[in-house]
Amino acid sequence: MNRTEQHVPVVSASEIAEYSYCALSWQFQRNKTAPAPPVTPSVERGRRVHAEVGRTLSQVEQERRIFWLLTVVGYALLALALIVLLREGAVSTTTVGNYTGILLLLLGATAFFTFALWKYYHTRMVRKEFGIPEGELLYSDLDAPSRVLYSEAHQISGKPDYVLRDEMTGAYIPVEVKSGRARKPYWNHILQLAAYCILVEERYGTSVPYGTLVYGNGEQHRIEFTPDLRAQVLATVDEMRACLEDGGSARRNHNAAVRCRSCAYREECGSALGDEYQ
Asked: CA angle, 173 as apex, 66 and 118 as ends, to 5°?
């Protein structure tokens, strides 16, 4: 009997991140045994950042397409000028008028190439400011809700912030945006991104070599999607399902008092760390 036939609970990628951050907090949210946490200023900031990045991402994608259109037209005019030059040279009847036509074609090609180059550098500046990697946009859930990706094989669901296709290698790259700042990627964010790698692989039928985490300062972190990282994601999911099957057997899986101090479920939790833990 496979997992689907056993009615294995579906676990979302965001839940994987919550569980890795604090298993007890995740359990409270999953079981709804405590009131939902209030919308904090940091949550509101995160929503604003995601909406802004989403709008910018749409603009960048439009400019990327315009760049390629301008480039194609420029090459077409260049090729046409060459064809005219070769044809006139072959019949040896080149006149001043013919040269003028060729010159106009070359000037047109130069204008299109110049405009395309300006678009390219402008887009690069915007990408750098918002931490948007290079690539063709395939999926986005930032400024408007998109469909949920689902793994039939592992019973995992989720909605990555966006998915790009690397135009050089053809690789599909999930990208997750975090509004906070970080010197290095947090482990729970890495696991969440790795879960998105699994979902993208199954959705698009291709292997995913890596994913990208982008924090509030626009800094990108490339996370290699290795077999070991895949195994750690699936092992975490198995732990979560074991907790669900036991009816709520999660235990505090960290020793960071700061997580407890800022937790909305602190009053309901019997394992919260006090100020003596730093």
From this structure: 25
Question: How far is 201 from 233, CA to CA, in rounded Å?
Answer: 14
Tell me the C-alpha distance between 23 and 191, whole Å: 14
In the chain the first and final C-alpha atoms are separated, in Å, by: 47
- Per DSSP, helices labelled H in the chain are 13-21, 23-31, 41-91, 96-130, 187-204, 227-245, 257-261
Top pLDDT among 43 and 278 is at 43
User: Tokens 């259109």 — which residue?
Assistant: 69
Using only the alpha carbons of the chain, give its radius of gyration.
26
**Token pair for 7:** 């009615």
* Strand order, beta sheet including 156-158: 11-12, 156-158, 149-151
- What DSSP string describes 27-79? HHHHHT-SPPPP--HHHHHHHHHHHHHHHHHHHHHHHHHHHHHHHHHHHHHHH
Place of tokens 């070599």: 209
Cα separation, 45 vs 57, in Å, equals 18
Distance of alpha carbon 169 from alpha carbon 133, whole angstroms:
14
Q: What whole-number distance in Å separates Cα of residue 8 and Cα of residue 211?
A: 27
Most confident range, picked from 31-40, 181-190, 252-261: 181-190
Which pLDDT tens digit goes with each residue over 216-245?
A: 878 899 999 999 999 999 999 999 998 888
Distance from C-alpha of 156 to C-alpha of 135, rounded to nearest angstrom? 26
Which DSSP symbol is given to 160? -
Task: Tell me the pTM.
Answer: 0.80
The CA dihedral of 90, 92, 98, 103, to the nearest 10 degrees, is 60
Mean pLDDT of the residues in the chain: 83
